[in-house]
Amino acid sequence: MSDIKKELCRLADKYQPLLNEIADYIHQNPELGCEEHKATAFLQNILNDHGFTISNKLVKDFPTAFKATNGNGPFHIGFLAEYDALPEIGHGCGHNLIAAMSVTAAIVCNEVLGNEATISVFGCPAEETVGSKVMLSEQGVFDGLDAALICHPGSETSFGGTSYATHPLQITFIGKPAHVADPNYHGINALDALVDFYQQLEALAKTFTEPHILGKIITDGGTAPNIIPDRAVMRATIRALRAEYLEDIMLPKIKQLAQQVSDAHGTRLELYHYEPLFKNMLNDKQLQSYAMANFQALGLTDLATYPDDYADGSTDVGNVSHIVPTIQPEIKIGDQIAAHTPEFANAAASAYGKEMALKAVKGLCMTVADVIKKG
């Protein structure tokens, strides 16, 4: 291990109390997406105390987003911080640890590498819902980064894989109401149209040639059984391993089918993407190679690696990865724990979870050193 990497690890150990403080505070004060006022104020105060310049007016739709920057070197490194919680469960996805790891790593890197790199922390709200990184990416907030890094808690330490691109769609059929027994005025049954569409969508899905997921529920099918439903609504999560296949093939065909069914039933069709497009994750191969070697050097030798076509969820980190070199490894914080559960939330507050988060901080900082040295 080089002297620079040893110094990064030594300083990370020094800042272990800070990492624990961040993780505990955010865990004890869970806030939903776009409501993370305590978390952002807490993180910004810490970063400001360490000489970072804060900008908290990145995009108007996300008041709890921020950017904190320090250092003046030619390499621009970005650490992505998440801090939103889940309803009722709290930090069942471990975002308290993500914020702690990213902020601590940024402080450590700046103190050791600040003359060679410009270090930024990007506060990214609402990963669990509308995904602020989607709009932040579209607005050019991440442009110019040499590397974007984030580490996610999990049930194993792992590298590779991808995430599903997803663009949730709401499909609404609008008909005309009538009493079911009215002999003269029969109305137009929107629910019939939706049920027809639901069945035909099953057949359409069998024609898609790339890996995909169609999850769908009916959220509105009428108000009373003696009234012809004049409004019927389906919400669908539509996912593929490639954003291009999702946007260029799947969605146009689904929307075309919905229009054909609507026309056949005499209804009016409304289509609405109720969440933005989360693109598939592209883990940068060079960054991943650096990080894997560094995690192994820290004694994390039991690493799981996944092929490029393996995915088990969606994340707005994918949108960042389509713009700049990005990695999102996972760090083990517990055995056989599933995300979005109370058990995971407990692990995200555990001493073991914070101990493993510290190792991830070291691995990420060492990876930044490799970026600067090797390019």
Describe what this molecule looks like in 3D.
The protein is α/β, with parallel strands linked by helices and 375 residues long. It folds into two domains: 3-163 and 279-374, Zn peptidases (Aminopeptidase), CATH 3.40.630.10; 165-272, Alpha-Beta Plaits. It is built from eleven helices and 15 strands. Strands 1-2-4-3-5-14 form a six-stranded mixed sheet. Strands 8, 9, 10, 11 and 12 form a five-stranded antiparallel sheet that branches. The protein is elongated and about 85 Å long. The mean pLDDT is 97.
Our count of helices gives 11
Class by alpha and beta content:
alpha/beta
Largest sheet: 6 strands, mixed
Please tell me the overall pLDDT.
97
Question: Looking at this structure, what is the CATH superfamily of the largest domain?
Answer: Zn peptidases
Number of domains: 2
Q: What is the CATH C level class of the largest domain, in words? A: Alpha Beta
Could you tell me the number of beta strands?
Answer: 15
CATH structural fold name of the largest domain: Aminopeptidase
Order of helices and strands: HHHEEEHEHEEEEEHEEHEHEHEEHH
Please state the second-level CATH architecture of the largest domain: 3-Layer(aba) Sandwich
Strand proportion, as a percent range, falls in 15-25%
- Amino- and carboxy-terminal Cα gap: 18 Å
- Form type: elongated
Helix content: 40-55%
* Unreliably modeled segments: none
Q: Strand order within the widest sheet?
A: 1-2-4-3-5-14
Q: What radius of gyration results from the CA coordinates?
A: 24 Å
